[in-house]
Design goal:
The chain is mainly beta. The chain contains three helices and 25 strands. Strands 1, 2, 4, 5, 7, 8, 10, 12, 14, 17, 19, 20, 22 and 23 form a 14-stranded mixed β-sheet that branches. The longest helix is centred in the N-terminal third of the chain and has 8 residues, at 32-39. The two termini are 19 Å apart.
């Protein structure tokens, strides 16, 4: 559940220094906005275009009509931002990501090759290399009682954060119309069945069928 256990390819994000400075991924969340504001002006002008205040988009990225992008945001090479996407700022999206129709992002890091292609909500979250969220799946980022989020794993981890969605390790895959409750952590290579409600930590290379049926993958 530590950074170096969830994210195995440091080269797949421009923000790796934040993960080196911290132990657990939720410790990175309060640092995203300042990092994007610091990184943006240093990006090479022959590769990135500043399209608005504190919005930097790689010239090979594809932006479809109807997407809204607020700063501070960085969109990496060959990433697609499809119609109706709502990017609310404090976002670092890597290379070859797909940000789909009606997908909403806020205060998040997408490593390279992340797909959030249809009707997804990703707030106060981090998605590792090749993570994928099926249509309609969301990262719920605020508890109903509005108290600070606690991560339930081998022990309870007090995050000190009122807003914290989910962490998806490299290659994690979430089925359609699933809800990741605040503070969910999916290990590397985890798969979640469609229509699931997930809470707490799911270990790497396991399949989450429901809370009482979590089995190890045999195909890795």
């Amino acid at each position: 559940m530590k950074n170096n256990e969830l994210f195995l390819h440091p080269e797949t994000t421009q923000a790796w220094e934040l993960f080196e400075q911290t132990t657990y991924p939720w410790e990175v969340l309060p640092l995203i906005k300042a990092f994007v504001l610091r990184l943006g002006p240093t990006l090479p002008g022959d590769e990135y275009e500043q399209t608005d205040d504190n919005v930097w988009i790689h010239k090979s990225a594809v932006l479809y009509p109807g997407a809204y992008i607020a700063g501070p945001t960085i969109i990496g090479p060959e990433t697609e931002v499809r119609p109706g996407a709502f990017l609310r700022g404090s976002i670092l999206a890597g290379r070859k990501c797909v940000i789909g129709n009606s997908t909403e992002l806020k205060n998040c890091i997408l490593f390279d090759n992340v797909q959030v292609p249809h009707y997804n909500y990703v707030g106060d979250s981090i998605l590792g290399n090749f993570a994928h969220m099926g249509a309609g799946s969301i990262c719920s980022n605020v508890k109903s009682d509005k108290k600070n989020v606690v991560v339930h794993g081998d022990r309870d981890y007090e995050t000190g954060l009122r807003k914290f969605g989910a962490i998806l390790g490299d290659g994690a895959d979430v089925g359609c119309n699933s809800v990741l409750c605040p503070g969910t952590v999916l290990g590397t290579g985890t798969r979640v069945y469609p229509l699931s409600r997930v809470r707490g930590v799911v270990r790497a290379y396991h399949i989450y069928k429901d809370a009482n049926a979590i089995v190890e993958r045999t195909d890795r």
